[in-house]
Design goal:
Two copies of one chain form a homodimer. Chain A is an alpha+beta fold. Chain A has 13 helices and 18 strands. In chain A, helix 1 runs antiparallel to helix 2, helix 7 crosses helix 9 and helix 10 runs antiparallel to helix 11. The first copy, chain A, is globular, with a radius of gyration of 23 Å. Chains A, B: One of its GO terms (molecular function) is catalytic activity.
């Protein structure tokens, strides 16, 4: 990058808007996955949409590649450079909450707002912004939109796409596309914002969004149920789906090996250690944002589950604190995997009615491929989304496990294909899944996806190599 | 159209797949609006996706324009020819229900399925397909998707877009784009199906879809409340939104002139004629697909509404029959307008919190423009969607009213703009709103919409002149 370009960028972005050399701290170089590490040649930190547009024009003219970056919490290498010539465009200074309308149930926020701050601002007005993720204390709303984030509340509120009413986007050539009207219905042909939701910054840089808000939950019942098999958990799901209907706000599957991992980190949990004897567990949330109290009704429903032998043991949270402790176990099992170092991670979906046979099949296939592998299946099975992860067999760690990963992923993806599933339910594609995605696209799909990229970014200056194989 | 093209189409489509000359009945020439009438040069009636692809290739090679057509229930001239050289591509024979999975909450249907048949097939399996429209007995699911239909249940279930999990589409050049996987989560970059939802057949022909299903409502309470102003109706909305939260499945505003019209057609309604003395009414549905009964709780909530002087009178349906009779009034007021002949129709949205001032302003502006105009405002105000219609002043009917319409529409749209609203909340653009839409697009929006059309349909053979000004 020439000195001339640096000074032009400096003019547009101001002194705190451009980092080069040793001013570039470590955080701009990696995401949470830890799978990728590369320092950018510069970090652009615009504070207005016009600065984003100005900086992008300069970069395009200079033939530079720009990687839009949110809160660094991605898991597929989408938001960090993969070669030192790339620049990072961080949205962190575009972090104003522009408007909240609690009656109209909308709010308009800039891309760099931290998800937790968005949720808190809504809550302060008595309304709910529902997206809920482990990373919510540091991920940014622009990144949530660019990756069409999922999380714990998808069953009730859908993926991020459903909550986006309007977007402000800077196109790769610096043109600004803005429609932030706070409208719940607006049916005027091609819905341009859909081009940018989930495309990981490859087609434009999201700078602001108008979001849909919801009534706050008033009654929440949280239940932990222990089952004798994944099949029984899915039967339980069928019961809850039929009886609780749209009160069902979360239905998480946790298999025994996951629970054992969580207990490794902390065994003073509200769920006794003995529960790990049961092979599969359901963490269920039933909630409503109005109407009568649900407690007695949920107790009756659980009684039905026991009568029908769907659950063998269980706990109903008697307080907010206890409900939080149930969810804490789910967080702990993720943390425990992270601490084990390199392991197989996945994020796949299948039709909900295939969940139990899929988990059985994939466990069998992976275990046959590498005996001793500790397969951990858990996830948002009410959405058909399961994370099939695996810890290496005893004695095989880090670099000695690495060579097995590509084949394990391939085998896993083949099982997903055989169940008509998706190799990415919610984490996106980024760098890590682009080859697997490419080989699964039908001809016309691949052509159309590439043609849209070519249309919007003919010089491939924005997030090159993300989603699409170069 | 040459004899050679006709015989090639005949070969692909078979004897019952192609209508020409006097075999083309009236129904292919007009939609429900009655605003447009033009017979096509031929009607293509394919019965498989491959026939659709084959026919489109022949038409493109011959330089013919094709108008995809569903159940003829559109209101903006999108689905009928506007010049006699155009062909109609009717999806009516693609009407198989391919699969239903009540546990997985999905179903796969062909585009020509009648909406009511889709709803009935879901109901037979104990699940709900929620889209509900006046036209549901004749509109087709492909048309519902191509127009991103709205209707009476948007408040709870969203527009059609939200219920589309997968699509099979034939592109203008005959390529088939198919992804009908029954997945609730699938996050793999550009979501191609979004290009075809709401674009009224301009980018491709939808031939099948995988739809999202929902639990069936178990408890439904329907309430008619009479208020002293539109402001009070919106205060009532704020109360219900806050207290009933996601139980609120419909909140319709009906102003007094609409009610009078309904009584004109049939005054033996369950709502007494005297209620028309109140200037504004709310038709509210509160429902749940599980959990405890809602009746007592709704009674208590209505008592609060009376205590706070938000409602002056009201009726709570004591039976399904009575609930249906409330909804029948809403249908009658639409029928009554239709019988009056030519009148001003609109379908606009504004931020929900601007609804009352918007209705006051637009009524004032239209009445000033043409004194004696009978302005009727009603709609799904819980979605921010209102139909501001108007009957001509006494003595001004049909052709003598016609010359006033363009200016009235322009004035109406200007008020919509001043409230940051949309000129099409749910009916779409078609032929009738394309000029109004075009003048409202920002430069980059217009460029991008046209570039996507050019990309997918470079010869403009599919639904030409719909949405986009030629």
């Amino acid at each position: 990058m020439g000195q001339d370009t640096i000074s032009r960028l400096g003019e547009v972005l101001g002194p705190s808007g451009l980092l080069v050399g040793t001013d570039i701290t470590e955080r701009y170089s990696r995401d949470w996955s830890g799978d990728y590490h590369c320092a950018p040649s510069a970090v652009l930190r615009p504070s207005t949409v016009d600065e984003v547009a100005g900086a992008l024009r300069i970069c395009r003219d200079a033939g530079l590649s720009v990687i839009p970056q949110g809160g660094h919490t991605g898991l597929v290498g989408g938001g960090t450079p993969d070669c030192a010539a790339q620049l990072v465009l961080s949205l962190e200074r575009l972090n104003r909450i522009r408007a909240i309308d609690p009656l109209g149930m909308t709010m308009t926020v800039e891309a760099g707002c931290i998800l937790q701050d968005v949720k808190d601002a809504a809550a302060a007005q008595g309304v709910l912004f529902p997206l809920a993720l482990g990373a919510q204390g540091s991920c940014q709303i622009g990144g949530n939109i660019a990756t069409n984030a999922g999380g714990l509340n998808v069953l009730r509120y859908g993926m991020m796409r459903r909550s986006v009413l309007g977007l402000e986007v800077v196109l790769p050539d610096g043109r600004i596309l803005s429609d932030l009207r706070a409208l719940h219905k607006n049916n005027t042909g091609l819905d341009l914002k859909q081009l940018f939701v989930g495309t990981e910054g490859t087609l434009g840089v999201i700078t602001a969004a108008t979001l849909r808000l919801y009534p706050q939950p008033k009654h929440i019942e949280t239940v932990w149920l222990c089952c004798n098999s994944v099949d029984r958990v899915m039967d339980l799901y069928a019961l809850f789906q039929h009886e609780a209907g749209d009160f069902l706000s979360a239905f998480e599957l946790i298999t025994a090996p996951c629970l054992e991992l969580a207990f490794e980190l902390d065994d003073h949990q509200s769920i006794s250690k003995e529960t790990a004897q049961y092979p599969a567990h359901a963490l269920v949330e039933i909630s409503s944002s109005g109407g009568p109290d649900l407690k007695e009704w949920v107790e009756d429903l659980i009684a039905v589950a026991f009568e029908r032998d769907l659950a063998a043991d269980g706990f109903m949270a008697q307080s907010d604190t206890q409900a939080k402790s149930f969810w804490r176990i789910r967080e702990l099992m993720v943390e425990a995997q992270q601490r084990r170092g390199l392991h197989l991670r996945s994020d796949v979906s299948v039709p909900i009615s295939s969940m139990a046979p899929f988990i059985a099949k994939v466990t069998e296939v992976l275990s046959a491929e590498l005996p001793g592998l500790n397969v951990l299946s858990y996830g948002h099975v009410g959405d058909g989304n399961v994370h099939v992860n695996a810890l290496p067999p005893e004695g095989l760690t880090g670099s000695s496990f690495q060579p097995y990963l590509p084949l394990l992923v391939e085998k896993l993806n083949e099982v997903v294909d055989s169940f008509d599933g998706s190799i990415s339910a919610e984490h996106g594609i980024g760098l890590s899944k682009r080859a697997a995605l490419d080989s699964r696209l039908q001809g016309p799909q691949r052509e159309l996806v590439r043609a849209v990229k070519q249309l919007l970014d003919p010089t491939d200056c924005l997030a090159p190599g993300r989603i699409l194989v170069p």
